[in-house]
Write a structure and sequence with these properties.
125 residues, mainly beta, Immunoglobulin-like, 6-stranded mixed sheet, 9 strands, globular
Length: 125
């Protein structure tokens, strides 16, 4: 599992791409899997935000890195989803699983710390 820390600016769309690789550095396909990522205060604590393949905020092998979509995981936090966050830090991990495993998470490819860069200017619609 890779430990990757992120800073998420609140109130604007945040997008990051990671590539799943094995210990030898070869890409590992995530096609057909499901993914969910939660940012919490601490493990077992309050959920600050959540994204998933079910809602289209995590995309698996939809984008290409160096011309190859294999293993590419795209994470998207829409601005309106992060705007209400008032915490400055949290922790996260991502779970990936397939339907053939009865919905049980099969692995956690990434985890780490989140720093929220809180918005100052509020825009009304």
């Amino acid at each position: 599992m890779a430990e990757i820390d992120f800073t998420i600016p609140t109130g604007v769309t945040w997008r990051r791409v990671v590539v799943r690789k094995d210990s030898a550095g070869n890409r590992v396909s995530v096609a057909g899997m499901h993914a969910k990522l939660e940012v919490r205060q601490r493990p077992g604590g309050q959920v600050y935000l959540s994204i998933s393949t079910d809602e289209g905020t995590i995309k698996l092998e939809a984008d290409a890195v160096d011309g190859d979509p294999t293993g590419v995981v795209t994470m998207i936090v829409p601005g309106p989803r992060s705007a209400p966050v008032s915490a400055t830090t949290g922790v996260y991990d991502m779970r990936l699983w397939s339907d053939t495993e009865d919905g049980e998470p099969s692995f956690r490819p990434i985890e780490g710390k989140i720093t929220f860069d809180l918005q100052v200017t509020q825009v009304s619609s």
